[in-house]
Amino acid sequence: MEIPKHIIAHYQEIVLKGKNRHIFVKKLIENIKYATAGLGVKHIRHKDGRIILDLSAGARESIISDRLTKTFGIANLVLTHRISNDVNVFKDEILQHVKGREFNSFRVSTKRGYKGYPLTSMDIDRIVGAHIKEATGAKVNLTNPELTIFIQILSGETYFYVDKIQGPGGLPVGTGGTVVCLLSGGIDSPVAAYRIMRRGCSVVFVHFHSYPYLSKTSQEKVQDLTEILNQYQQPVKTYMLSFGDIQKEIVLSVPAKYRVVIYRRMMLRIAERIAGETGALALITGDSL
Questions:
Q1: Read out DSSP for 72-116?
Q2: Topology (CATH) of 178-288
Q3: What is the CATH number of domain 5-166?
């Protein structure tokens, strides 16, 4: 019978937040719920410094994993199996799972989120490692193994897994307030938006275009960029603002050598107004890099 599956999401930088840690964890769980809605996640729990997603039988694991790799605050995630809390039982459960894999060397790596477990991490490593070595004939290699078996001991729960998926790291979006990003359609501004999201900011996008004097190419490009960037946050409004008439007025009244500066000044003034309306705390541009 298939062992029930779970996903454990680990965070790192959030640990440094001290007494405010619960605020960041709460927001991260909220963002995970939003990202995985409708994909077969039964429950999301915070336990012993980890976030555990309990999956239903028909859960869409690959999509869930992909969504979590775009959820800032997650350092890494693992598709894992819950096993017995008794080492003499779970060593057999782990063996049955890894017997179908081909490997000539392995190591066991145990972490105890629950320090009250009667065995140390090294004790568990030795017991499970000896059992697998005897059953498979594979060698123990602590420095460069072909297979690493990870075991996590929590209070009342034990899990194991063999593969880690890298997360985006950073802080949960929404913990750093809201900012407005002037999105030009080039490479610098979307990179700046991504990096400020990673620091926990929710980003409102503003794009200035010259349609109908020029084509809609820049608008289409920005729509594509915001579609990608909004995979990393709960989508917010994108402002597509016509700037052509303002440009015409500037051309008529400002010497050529000052026009680019005035264009940018006007864009910033408009973006500042939007920031005031949306409660944003800062303006982000490609220059922020």
A1: TT--EEEEEEEE-S-HHHHHHHHHHHHTTS--SEEEEEEEESSTT
A2: Rossmann fold (3.40.50)
A3: 3.30.2130.30
Instruction: Indicate the pairing of strand 178-182 with strand 283-284.
Output: parallel
Q: How far is CA 189 from CA 161, 205, 216, 257, 270, in A?
A: 39, 10, 19, 24, 17
User: Can you tell me the distance from the alpha carbon of 225 to that of 97, in angstroms, rounded to the nearest whole number?
Assistant: 42
Q: What does the pLDDT look like over 32-78, one tens digit per residue?
A: 999 999 999 999 999 999 999 999 988 999 999 999 999 999 999 99
Residue 99, token pair as written in the block:
């017997």
Residues contacting 161, CB < 8 A, separation 6+: 8, 78, 79, 80, 81, 150
Please list the residues that pair with 105 across neighbouring strands.
139
Alpha-carbon distance values, 35 to 29, 30, 65, 167, 230 (Å): 10, 9, 10, 14, 11
Residue 152: beta bridge partners? 111, 159
Q: Find the helix or strand (DSSP H, E) in which 133 lies.
A: helix 121-136
At 229-280, the pLDDT tens digits run: 999 999 888 999 999 899 999 999 999 999 999 999 999 999 999 999 999 9
**How do residues 133-177 score in pLDDT, each as one tens digit?**
999 999 999 999 999 999 999 999 999 999 999 999 999 999 999
- Residue 31's CB is within 10 A of a number of other CB atoms, namely 24
> What six digits make up the tokens of 111?
């972490």
Rounded to two decimals, what is the model's pTM? 0.89
| CA nearest to 65, candidates 50, 49, 76 | 76
| Encoded tokens for 38 | 């409708």
Query: Quick check: helix, strand or coil at residue 245?
Result: helix
Q: Where are the domains of the chain?
A: 5-166, 178-288
